[in-house]
Amino acid sequence: MTEKTPDLLRVIIAGALVLLVVHTLGRFIYTPLLPWLVEDGLLTLKQGADVASWNYLGYLIGALLAMRWHRVEQIHKVLPWALAINVLCTLLQTQAESAESLSALRLINGITNGIVFVQAPSLILEWLARHGRATASGLVYLGVGVGLLVSSALVAVPSDWLHGAARWWPAFILSVPLAWWGWRQLAVLDIPAPVVVPKANGEVPSSRLLDRASTPLFLSYAGAGLGYILPLTFLPMLASLELEPGSFLVDGSWLVVALATLPAPWIWNKVGARIGDALALRINYILQLLGVLAVLLLPAAWGVVLCALLVGGTFLGTVLLTQRLARTLHPHQGPRLSAALVALYGFTQLTGPWLTGQWLAASGTLHGAFWLGAGALLWGLVWALLTPEKS
């Protein structure tokens, strides 16, 4: 290998660290932080749901921007700025003492997270496909699994000596070196523009994102976005409301999610490569649906544990299998298709916390709001059954 051709392991690690920074230290750490921010008096539960909604709105905007900036040369220009601004937002959140200021910062955090979450894996997937290693692409999402575990520790360990907005400091301190090193590795990836190869009958592949093959996949992914976001945003809060004070799961439910998520990208990457991404995706939806139903139908402690295990162990698999299956259906427009899927995912994620906020404002319970997630995952499963392996 020459200096200009990074080895596969280094590229995978770099992508994983970039996703760890924006998607866990920047985004998902808010989930285990929320009960503490409520306890500290910085937010109410209703404000916490609203703040989450602003972040998801930003994620949607970021994915739409990434859809506009989908060419490799554009990714090389935009990605480092999005990564840097994301880290800066985490710094500024250490000074955010009101729901309004935190909402504004979470909006910007979401925009930059959406851009990076689309562009970094897309860049790596195109590079891997060029070198005949596209089946390794799912390993990039190991960064999210590791990041959930790290974020749990960054919240739990200093919980007794940090208060309010200062609870964001550990995330910022760790983000700086990881973001810097990760981008340095990705910056040297040189990928030519994709070549549009005519089909066997001489027909040039369509540039449409939605056709008979891809439309069921888009509809399925919409259900995934809405279905997973409720437990991953509100499960620790639900545990604190339904379990006895002092229960391990009040603080530990997010740790269980993190531990379940840690091996998930490797497992689903392997399962998809062995039995096909389409079949693996259907199995993934079934397990994820059972996880949400567990918290609805079983005693509180058992429900929280099974929800954490099954949703934590599947949601990244949904992402990587859908992204890879989409590229199989339309290999000539990989980054653009990835951005469109993430934009749809972002839109449906946005509706989850917003609907939860409205439900709570109308005197509904957080437990009741989880039924929405179960219905969304059932929708996703039905459309996954109708998605072909190849067009």
From TrEMBL:
It is found in: Membrane. Pfam families: MFS_4 (PF06779). The keyword Membrane applies. Gene3D superfamilies: MFS general substrate transporter like domains (1.20.1250.20). This is YbfB/YjiJ family MFS transporter. One of its GO terms (molecular function) is transmembrane transporter activity. It is a multi-pass membrane protein. GO terms for cellular component: plasma membrane. Keywords: Membrane, Transmembrane, Transmembrane helix. It comes from the Bacteria. The chain crosses the membrane at residues 12-31, 51-69, 140-159, 165-183, 218-241, 247-267, 368-386. The keyword Transmembrane helix applies.
